[in-house]
Design goal:
Helices cover 47% and strands 2% of the residues. The two termini are 34 Å apart. The N terminus is likely disordered.
């Protein structure tokens, strides 16, 4: 049964101040493979589809193995999202999802897009921007406002359809959108009652970070007050929840000069954003955050400088920056032992794609909630902490439990093989779940189990095969990409 829609209560939001890791830390030796002309092995194809999407399909491997890194990256950044493929999502009772009637359906409708989209980079980048401009349905009502913001973020994530999209315009539109206006109380900010929530997060989280690489503050409390004045006066049309843009009410705005980051002018929302984005800390901050979406360790000084130069020279375009990062050799570091932990959304959607499943009930919603990463519900305006925080006793069991439930579905019933050696059983299980990366030690342990498991009846053989598949998809190896 779908979760009933609840109208949230408005509340003030405050996020802890966290300094970024020093740029250039944890430098790794650059691998030999990974240039644009390098022919890709299957492991390289898998790596790219996990880092830039939600894992490879058999068709992806067939299409791209042997082709160059540059060809795949060009397709990822140039192919529009395309029509969704596969079965339409439904509730457990077979009825269609209704995203504006149920928060469960709201979440699952987006998960469905991630599962079925032909070019996975589009939804991966949409989710990146959702985490960057974190806005929660818990504080935003009606749900149409969240759907509008989601569509906006997708427009800037679809780099094929919008090759000239810039971060500047994205920041303009997100800040003027109804979801952000409601989430950070921008709609309540007037010349008589200035609200600093949005102004603070523009600098602290969206554009600059608290301090620079040298540990120096990027802005002051005075700058927070001044940008709050510049951004006051925006409202939402509550009579039309389907209106995707807020509107500016000059009578509620603050007139006159504002002194922001050392510049005095009669700033409005967009010109204030321009001042912030011109700050020396902006480009390194955004570039590093986007880099860490695809590579687990910060860029070295030379790489960061190259990416910052490209970003600024392009006029803050998104596509050239993403393309340059995906072409970097460090995308393919540690191919023999993946070193980036899958966030819950990537892990869960990846399971669905690996098994060729579609949304038919709430099990993925429940698993994402238990893992702590429910789309549309970031815990704070800073989004999700991520990293190793994703794995603890409870979330690890949840991940394994989801894998176990999915391989136990009636439609995933294994073919019965009356006589099958232990190593053959493991190989078949591995193939049937998409042949993901598996360490030699894991393969040996599973083979040892398969050799001891009872297989006298069809029921016992079915159980052995499903256990093998669950361990391959839910065990330690499956948590990294």
């Amino acid at each position: 049964m779908a979760t009933k829609l609840a109208r949230p209560k408005k509340k003030k939001r405050k996020v802890p101040t966290v300094a970024p890791a020093p740029l250039g830390a944890h430098r790794l030796k650059r691998p030999k493979a990974g240039g644009a002309q390098t022919p890709m092995t299957q492991a390289m194809v898998d790596r790219m589809f996990w880092r830039a999407g939600f894992g490879p399909s058999t068709a992806d491997r067939t299409t791209w193995t042997g082709k160059s890194v540059g060809q795949l990256v060009e397709w990822l950044v140039s192919a529009p999202q395309g029509a969704l493929t596969g079965a339409e999502p439904v509730r457990a009772d077979g009825s269609p999802l209704k995203p504006t009637d149920s928060d469960t359906d709201l979440v699952l409708s987006w998960v469905d897009r991630m599962v079925r989209v032909p070019n996975p980079l589009v939804e991966r980048m949409t989710f990146f921007w959702h985490r960057h401009f974190a806005t929660s349905r818990a504080d935003v009502s009606p749900p149409q406002l969240m759907l509008q913001q989601n569509a906006l973020l997708r427009r800037y994530a679809d780099l094929g359809a919008n090759p000239d999209a810039t971060f500047t315009n994205l920041a303009y539109e997100v800040g003027e959108g109804p979801a952000m206006l409601r989430f950070l109380d921008g709609e309540d900010s007037t010349r008589r009652n200035i609200n600093e929530n949005y102004g603070r997060e523009i600098m602290e989280l969206f554009c600059l970070g608290v301090v620079d690489a040298a540990g120096q503050p990027n802005y002051s409390e005075t700058d927070v007050k001044e940008i709050a004045k510049a951004t006051a006066g925006w409202q939402i049309d509550d009579d039309d929840p389907d209106n995707p843009i807020g509107f500016f009410n000059a009578s509620r705005s603050v007139l006159g000069a504002k002194n922001l980051l050392g510049q005095a002018a009669d700033l409005n929302h967009r010109t204030a954003i321009d001042v912030v984005l011109a700050h020396r800390a902006h480009a390194p901050y955004l570039v590093t955050k986007l880099w860490l979406e695809f590579v687990p360790t910060p860029p070295d000084t030379a790489t960061l400088g190259d990416l910052v130069t490209l970003y600024l020279a392009s006029g803050r375009k998104i596509r050239p920056l993403v393309e340059r990062i995906l072409l970097h050799p460090r995308i393919f570091e540690s191919l023999g032992e993946p070193n980036l932990l899958k966030p819950p959304i990537v892990y869960s959607v990846g399971l669905m794609r690996q098994l060729g499943l579609s949304i038919k009930d709430n099990r993925v919603y429940d698993a994402l909630q238990a893992q702590g990463q429910l789309p549309y519900f970031p815990p704070t305006v800073a989004g999700w902490e991520g990293g190793l925080t994703w794995l603890n006793t409870n979330t690890s069991l949840t991940r394994f439990g989801l894998a176990q439930r999915l391989v136990s579905l009636p439609e995933k019933k294994p073919t019965d093989v009356a006589v099958e050696a232990a190593d053959a059983a493991v190989a078949r299980a591995h193939t049937e779940v998409g042949a993901p990366w598996m360490a030699d030690g894991t393969k040996a342990a599973l083979t040892a189990y398969a050799g001891k498991a009872p297989v006298k009846s069809a029921t016992e053989r079915d159980a052995r095969q499903r256990v093998l598949r669950a361990f391959i998809l839910g065990g330690p190896d499956a948590q990294v990409m």
